[in-house]
């Protein structure tokens, strides 16, 4: 009887162990499939960026979309038009007064009152300056500049005066130019972010004659992603051959290079 109880207990333990192992395997496979899908989407987008960098140099004339909203200069080519863009500039927060009082307290004879001689000293401390959204509008990237046109403000960043482009993540893209003391820039919806950053980098590269560097970066990205995908799909990877096909649509598709995107 005792031996039968031990056998039943051992069988329950074995079944429980198999169930736990199966649950771990399902979780591992789910994570593996999600990672593979992500790599495939990134790889698709990287290949589109490479093809665009090789073949697209902006459009002029009749190919310029109606949404551009600015007068183009001679020889200026449009790379992209971004709607629903937010203008971001530094703004100071509320300040505060910090001070202290000092002096001497003296009793008034014949009363229970005291007389205080002294002064209050302190200073006003200005609020911290932080990037803040101040307007909404359309953002146009060209071969010579970037232009924001909003309901209240308009801003222009000329590439010949550009000091640097910083893609803050998450958040916004700052454009530092020599004719403006403080950084300003634009913020877009996260679904547009990768494409907008790419168009900015490509336009600046055309202005600075450094397109080969953009092409090299895209090529490196593709190589790294292909290696990561091959590692997942390798026969030695557990259950890799049973993975379903990943979706081929990129997270933010670039348009055909015959015309600039309206993002």
Task: For this entry, give a set of tags.
single chain, 263 residues, alpha+beta, PH-domain like
CATH architecture field of the domain at 58-92 and 130-209: Roll
| Proportion of residues in helical segments | 25-40%
Structural class: alpha+beta
**Count of discrete alpha- or pi-helical segments spanning 4 or more residues:** 3
CATH class of the domain at 58-92 and 130-209: Mainly Beta
Order of helices and strands: HEEEEEEEEEHH
Would you give an account of this structure?
- This protein has 263 residues and is an alpha+beta fold.
- Among the domains are: 115 residues, Pleckstrin-homology domain (PH domain)/Phosphotyrosine-binding domain (PTB) (PH-domain like), CATH 2.30.29; 30 residues, no CATH class.
- The protein contains 3 helices and 9 strands, in the order H-E-E-E-E-E-E-E-E-E-H-H.
- Helix 1 packs antiparallel against helix 3 and helix 2 packs across helix 3.
- The chain is flat.
């Amino acid at each position: 009887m005792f031996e039968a109880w031990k056998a039943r207990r051992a069988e329950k333990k074995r079944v429980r162990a198999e169930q736990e192992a199966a649950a771990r395997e399902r979780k591992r496979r789910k994570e593996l499939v999600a990672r593979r899908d992500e790599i495939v989407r990134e790889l698709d987008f990287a290949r589109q960026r490479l093809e665009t960098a090789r073949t697209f140099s902006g459009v002029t004339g009749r190919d310029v979309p109606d949404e551009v909203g600015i007068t183009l200069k001679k020889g200026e080519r449009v790379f992209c038009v971004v709607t629903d863009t937010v203008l971001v500039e530094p703004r100071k927060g509320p300040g505060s007064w910090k001070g202290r009082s000092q002096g001497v307290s003296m009793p008034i004879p014949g009363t229970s009152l005291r007389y205080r001689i002294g002064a209050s000293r302190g200073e006003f401390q200005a609020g911290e300056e932080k990037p803040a959204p101040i307007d909404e509008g359309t953002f146009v990237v060209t071969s010579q500049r970037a232009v924001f046109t909003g309901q209240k403000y308009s801003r222009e960043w000329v590439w010949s005066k550009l000091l640097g482009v910083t893609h803050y993540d998450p958040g916004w893209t700052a454009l530092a130019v020599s004719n403006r003391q403080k950084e300003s820039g634009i913020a877009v919806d996260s679904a547009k972010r990768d494409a907008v950053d790419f168009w900015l980098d490509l336009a600046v590269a055309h202005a600075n004659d450094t397109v080969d560097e953009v092409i090299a970066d895209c090529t490196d990205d593709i190589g790294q992603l292909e290696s990561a995908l091959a590692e997942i799909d390798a026969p030695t990877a557990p259950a890799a051959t049973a993975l379903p096909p990943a979706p081929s649509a990129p997270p933010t598709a670039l348009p055909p290079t015959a015309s600039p995107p309206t993002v």
